[in-house]
Design brief:
Layout (H helix, E strand, L loop, with lengths): L9 H20 L6 H22 L9 H20 L14 H6 L6 H33 L9 H23 L7 H26 L7 H9 L9 H15 L9 H8 L3 H12 L3 H19 L5 H8 L4 H12 L3 H10 L2
């Protein structure tokens, strides 16, 4: 008999919900190559929660606990989730199984659960640092190739990882304080801990399902940047000046979602030449360069046609949405579009 009884506590109900939430996420995402890492994470989370539930409902009759070893899977799972999501050209392969060797080694050592959990906490810190590094590389890559980076940005994923890291640290503190904590505070903390993990799980699934766009050229951008410069750095300023004149003359920056490939098609230059000339000759990324031109264009229109509303000005300047309009102005000027443009419209 798997369960000695059905005396479920509140925390057990949360665990059951987490199991079904994980399996539902798998059902929603299965077949999507880019979500392989998340599918693995959801499956492992459901398995871990099932073991946790079983062990708690059979306290005293379980001879060997395996859940402490699962603490060594959390770091690798989230690292692989982020890597495959951001770099789909590096899908999960059998060599990735090496990340879980530590879990297998820890299985016979779970009687020393505090040492196993400490190793799990250190593993999580290392793997989370690697995941954050992938996020930084992703945002740098989209800034190199796309002007409208807002739809493809994953700040919510970054924030989710930060929250998850905080929860994991708090959970480690909770486990180590269990021997000195008194009831009911110990049970309440554990319940709140499980609820928080369930919320983070749901946020991750919903966030990925609703993510409007993802950039797929991280490896390509980094490989291109690693190649030798196409020209001498002394030529960068001249090439950039010529390119800048063409972009301003034809107002290509007014096209929503303009990217390096589009500019390459207009000018006949290679993507690498354009990227190199803007970075070296202009001293900015492609996204910052295009968005600064859009800000200047919006300022000109605010002065020339003060009766127009800001959203119309934004669309004509090349911004694809109100959210990107606000985000770009806040980043480049430190002000909202209204704070920056309204004084220009009134002549103040």
């Amino acid at each position: 008999m798997l369960l000695t009884g059905f005396n479920l506590q509140s925390v057990n109900i949360i665990q059951i919900l987490a199991i079904f939430a994980g399996l539902l996420g798998v059902a929603l995402l299965v077949g999507e190559r880019r979500y392989q890492g998340l599918i693995l994470a959801l499956l492992m989370q459901s398995v871990m929660m099932a073991f946790n539930l079983y062990e708690e409902l059979n306290v005293g009759s379980v001879s060997w606990y395996v859940t402490p070893a699962f603490s060594l899977t959390l770091g690798p799972i989230f690292y692989l989730l982020v890597r495959v999501l951001l770099v789909p050209e590096q899908p999960l392969t059998w060599p990735d199984a090496r990340h879980f060797i530590a879990t297998l080694i820890a299985l016979p050592l779970t009687p020393f659960f505090q040492w196993v959990l400490l190793a799990g906490a250190l593993s999580q810190l290392l793997y989370f640092a690697a995941a954050f590094k992938w996020l930084r590389r992703y945002h740098a890559a989209i800034a190199e190739r796309q002007a409208d980076t807002t739809p493809a940005e994953l700040h919510w994923l970054y924030n989710t990882l930060v929250v998850l890291l905080i929860l994991l640290i708090l959970d480690m503190v909770r486990v180590n304080l269990q021997s000195v904590m008194v009831s009911p505070y110990r049970e309440i903390w554990y319940l709140l801990d499980q609820i928080a993990f369930l919320i983070v799980l749901c946020v991750a699934v919903v966030g990925l399902v609703r993510q409007p766009a993802l950039f797929s050229g991280v490896s390509e951008v980094e490989q291109t940047n690693a190649e030798p410069a196409p020209h001498e750095d002394s030529q960068a300023a001249a090439i950039f000046a010529s390119l800048d004149a063409q972009i301003r003359e034809h107002q290509w920056y007014c096209q929503p979602r303009i990217c390096l490939q589009d500019i390459a098609g207009f000018t006949g230059l290679s993507v690498k030449d354009i990227s190199w000339s803007i970075n070296t000759g202009g001293g900015v990324s492609f996204a910052d360069y295009i968005n600064q031109l859009r800000i200047d264009r919006a300022a000109e229109m605010a002065k020339a046609t003060p009766q127009r509303n800001l959203l119309d000005i934004a669309m004509d300047a090349g911004f694809s949405s109100k959210s990107s309009f606000n985000a770009v102005f806040k980043k480049h000027t430190g002000k909202t579009p209204g704070q920056y443009l309204n004084p220009l419209r009134t002549g103040a």
